């Protein structure tokens, strides 16, 4: 078993090395983008949003850029890193793609990182949100967000806005721990106090006992980070237990009130304050058009994952324009560094040093607009870099 | 003190829910000696039927609950007649392979039809929130679960112990050959029992959407919990799984409240300790069947 595995690794590495050697000489008329997304499994909504957004972008902007036809090849990895790696290998070796993109979760993005380095092709991360990702390969660029961005901002905001005691409830996995640590650092540095810290198991069936503990700790607010799907359950049980009536607010990074699910969460979620990169209610004309077009094409509201995908494909287009259609991976990644543009979420850019996204982080409150629940932005922290990296 | 009572109440409600979800499995596994890992799929079916009726068609929640039961039972009886009955005499491995395959198919089917995101059932206002009884917070929804599940348990026990059907079922289980020799229509008894177990799961699925969350991965996520209930409770009666559910529910809630760092492991630790102490479960038969 071991031998076979090792052999296949060596073979794959050799194939990739071979490919890298011939890649610059290859001048095709098409540009292939290998999109690796969770299309099945618990993260499937991420994959669907990104795929939809990319389709929408290509409908609006045509499928030809700098004289090349852009071709998207979608592979499903169900957010399992082993499958991501296999899919990336197939895409690079067999399909000879010029970009790999997507990546619903952090382990998936990390699994593909060494392949991007070896094959010298850009890896455009459109979802996964832990800080370390872009440090794992000089070919990784990110158009989504990092948890440090939103968690530090909400920490700063909370101390300044009369929240002194906070209880935290975070899912016990890498992004949850990232969110918790960055929040805690900024919140306590500003003079706040974390009175209760609970990490819930990732496959958590019932929040009741944890919430009861929060209630008995009597904090001013609960800082919450749970995977998108669990946000609704959390909010319902929060209301059931009467924490809202006890005056305990909910704050957190915006994953809890993802636009994708927000409208089904019920009125309990009203008043929740989160910090995040995108709200479907962002008041720019560009966003209004984007939301309208997305709704028309796919029947529901775009969430922050959709915007990340939309911007990801935009970045690929812009890089190709800048290289004049040259598909050399190193030139493409250079072309991506420092790109600046107006996205539906607001002005964003790619940090030339870290290849990570620089964007506005908005403080939003859940309110009812035309009978639907939206995250309404009321404060902006401009051009936030990934604070998770700067101290290294 | 009030915190203890609130936790106790939450634990009982959670345990009751586990019981309704798992008792059908206790029946098929314990009484019919059939390993049905697809049990959660019936629970999911009931949950989704209830969701569609309430959210899309505007049915009242309490009218949709019986239908969740009926539809899951109907699916159960169709599958029992067409697929399951061929596997009664096969080895446990075949049964496991078949039912786990069925589970994956149900996951994919629901994912395809309803999408993969989590769904909620719109509850009437009367069931939302909590009220105080001498400072003890009682969730309305959880109280309803305790009442419904409590009544169901009593009814089930009565049916099994006191009625003619109950004695037929027990006879059919103990010795199918002798039972059919006595004129009991064994396949019919089994089919009915199977369907009833599926119906209960469907009802449990509908009730659990609010607390456990309902998505296409429900059958896989909670399979372990169902199996824990049945193994800990032993599968010779329904009292065993009932007490096991309560114990696990209370233990899980208390563990998460008092030792949140250890919370998720409490339920497994309890299972291991109980199984070391009584390998056949709390109320297991001494001789393995």
Automatic annotation (TrEMBL), chain A:
One of its GO terms (biological process) is amino acid transport. Belongs to the leucine-binding protein family. InterPro entries: BCAA_transport, Leu-bd, Peripla_BP_I. Keywords: Amino-acid transport, Signal, Transport. It holds the Pfam family Peripla_BP_6. It comes from Bradyrhizobium neotropicale. The keyword Signal applies. Residues 1-27 form the signal peptide. Residues 30-367 form the Leucine-binding protein domain. This is ABC transporter substrate-binding protein.
TrEMBL record, chain B:
Its main location: membrane. GO terms for cellular component: plasma membrane. Signal peptide: none annotated. This is ABC transporter permease. It comes from Bradyrhizobium neotropicale. Belongs to the binding-protein-dependent transport system permease family. LivHM subfamily. The chain crosses the membrane at residues 12-32, 61-84, 96-114, 141-161, 182-203, 223-250, 262-279. GO terms for biological process: amino acid transport. InterPro entries: ABC_transp_permease (IPR001851), BCAA_transport_permease (IPR052157). It is a multi-pass membrane protein. Coiled coil: none annotated. One of its GO terms (molecular function) is transmembrane transporter activity. It is found in: Cell membrane. Keywords: Amino-acid transport, Cell membrane, Membrane, Transmembrane, Transmembrane helix, Transport.
């Amino acid at each position: 078993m071991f031998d076979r595995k090792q052999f296949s690794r060596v073979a794959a590495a050799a194939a990739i090395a071979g490919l890298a050697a011939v890649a610059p000489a290859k001048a095709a008329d098409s540009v292939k983008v290998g999109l690796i997304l969770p299309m099945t499994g618990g993260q499937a909504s991420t994959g669907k949003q990104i795929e939809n957004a990319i389709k929408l972008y290509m409908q609006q902007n045509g499928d030809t850029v700098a004289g090349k036809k852009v071709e998207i090849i979608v592979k499903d990895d169900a957010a399992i890193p082993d499958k991501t790696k296999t899919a990336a290998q197939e895409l690079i070796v067999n399909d000879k793609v010029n970009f790999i993109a997507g990546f619903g979760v952090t382990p998936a993005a990390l699994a593909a990182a060494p392949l991007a380095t070896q094959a010298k092709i850009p890896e455009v991360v459109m979802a996964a949100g832990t800080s370390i990702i872009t440090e794992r390969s000089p070919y990784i660029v990110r158009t989504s967000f990092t948890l440090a961005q939103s968690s530090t901002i909400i920490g700063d905001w909370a101390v300044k806005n009369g929240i002194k005691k906070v209880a935290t409830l975070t899912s016990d996995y890498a992004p949850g721990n990232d969110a918790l640590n960055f929040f805690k650092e900024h919140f306590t540095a500003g003079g706040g106090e974390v009175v209760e810290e609970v990490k819930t198991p990732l496959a958590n069936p019932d929040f009741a006992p944890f919430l009861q503990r929060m209630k008995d700790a009597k904090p001013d607010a609960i800082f919450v980070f749970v995977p998108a799907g669990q946000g609704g359950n959390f909010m319902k049980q929060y209301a059931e237990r009467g924490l809202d009536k006890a005056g305990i607010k909910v704050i957190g990074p915006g994953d809890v009130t993802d636009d994708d699910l927000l409208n089904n969460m019920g009125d309990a979620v009203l008043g929740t304050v989160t910090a995040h990169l995108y709200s479907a209610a962002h008041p720019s004309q560009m966003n209004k058009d984007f939301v309208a077009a997305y709704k028309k094409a796919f029947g529901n509201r775009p969430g922050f994952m959709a915007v990340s995908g939309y911007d990801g494909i935009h970045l690929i287009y812009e890089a190709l324009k800048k290289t004049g259609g040259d598909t050399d991976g190193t030139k493409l990644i250079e072309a991506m560094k420092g790109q600046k543009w107006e996205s539906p979420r607001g002005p964003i850019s790619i940090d030339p040093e870290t290849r990570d996204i620089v964007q506005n982080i908005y403080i939003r409150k859940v309110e009812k607009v035309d009978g639907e629940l939206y995250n309404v932005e009321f404060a902006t922290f401009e051009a936030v870099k990934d604070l998770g990296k700067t101290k290294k | 003190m009030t915190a203890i009572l609130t936790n106790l109440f939450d634990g009982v409600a959670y345990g009751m829910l586990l019981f309704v979800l798992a008792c059908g499995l206790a029946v098929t596994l314990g009484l019919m000696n059939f390993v049905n890992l697809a049990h959660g799929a019936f629970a999911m079916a009931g949950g989704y039927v209830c969701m569609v009726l309430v959210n899309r068609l505007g049915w009242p929640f309490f009218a949709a609950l019986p239908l969740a039961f009926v539809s899951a039972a109907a699916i159960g009886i169709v599958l029992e007649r067409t697929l399951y009955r061929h596997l009664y005499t096969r080895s446990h491995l075949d049964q496991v392979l078949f039912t786990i395959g069925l589970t994956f198919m149900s996951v994919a089917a629901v994912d395809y039809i309803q999408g993969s995101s989590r769904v909620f059932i719109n509850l009437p206002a009367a069931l939302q929130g909590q009220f105080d009884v001498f400072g003890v917070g009682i969730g309305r929804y959880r109280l309803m679960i305790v009442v419904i599940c409590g009544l169901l348990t009593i009814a089930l026990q009565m049916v099994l112990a006191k009625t003619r059907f109950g004695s037929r079922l027990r006879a059919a289980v103990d010795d199918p050959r002798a039972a059919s020799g006595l004129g009991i229509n064994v396949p019919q008894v089994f089919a009915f029992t199977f369907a009833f177990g599926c119906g209960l799961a469907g009802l449990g699925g509908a009730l659990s959407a609010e607390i456990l969350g309902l998505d296409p991965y429900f059958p896989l996520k909670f399979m372990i919990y169902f199996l824990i209930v049945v193994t800990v409770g032993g599968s010779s009666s329904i009292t065993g799984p009932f007490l096991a559910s309560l114990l696990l529910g209370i233990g899980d809630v208390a563990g998460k409240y008092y030792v949140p760092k250890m919370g998720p492991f409490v339920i497994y630790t309890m299972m291991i300790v109980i199984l070391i102490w009584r390998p056949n479960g709390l109320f297991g038969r001494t001789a393995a069947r």
